[in-house]
Amino acid sequence: MTREPRFSLQRTRFDENYQPSDGTRITTNFANLARGRSRQQNLRNTLKMIDNRFNALAHWDNPRGDRYGVELEIVSVGMCIDGGDDAPALPLIEMLQTCIHDRKADTRIAGIVGNNFSSYVRDYDFSVLLPGYNANRAEFGMPEDFGDLHGRLFRQFVGSRLYCAQFGKAPVICISAATSRTYQRNGNRHPVLGVEYLQDEPSSTDRYFAKMGLQVRFFMPPGGVAPLAFYFCGDLLADYTHLELIGTISTMETFQKIYRPEIYNANSAAGSVFRPSLENQDFSSTQIVYDRHERSQLAVTQGKFAEEHVIKPYGRMLEHWAAGAAP
Fold it and tell me: pTM for this one?
């Protein structure tokens, strides 16, 4: 070990021509859409859904509903742990960044980074470490330090010079509400995010993301049928413009309609009290092919990759470094 770990960043355009390389180890759900015979039609339909949803929400000064287009980039974060400048970076995190194309003004507006979130260390924690920890336990439990390393690595990246040079604002991660929790409307209503819901108690994902420095709020956007979980630091309602928030909503609500149509493409909207369920049969299909079984398999594969290439050889050193101590 000759130097401290350092982050690297690579951007890949996510459009109808996107195709993951054969050697890519990836659990991000959008990569699943880009495989198989339906890949290009999947991608084309997905991007059209995102644009339509964006224009429906950004309806002011947009009489024909076609003013805006959403452009997406996959942001791949790696970590160079050992070796010189030419040493390959180990994959760490993948997120999405939105960019809003205002066709009327012919300008582009940088959107929010985060949105979808894939992490090798998180897959190790949930798909390798946690099952092993509970293998011989009578009751399900979590190690006391569960998520500590992942949280510290994420905070180190967000606080790094590389992040600050590339992104103007803190990330927002938007995922589905937990099926293990009950949600109740609290009367708060935002013009873009919609009606707010409160959950009965924090989920394991909430606790895990809290170690990344992120808090959570739940909103069901106008025209939506179920609340989305927004993980952020700072002030979600004050730190981002309406167009930035719409970029995240339109992108991630579209993906959730594809990933979890039982919840996000249901034929009836959530009431004042809501319990998400994948057993719901009253929903509409998006006609976009998505393999949930493959996603679960990839999480295990990626978790084992992280164990072999990150945790076992570098875990202790990374814990010291990420905590701010000398390695």
Answer: 0.93
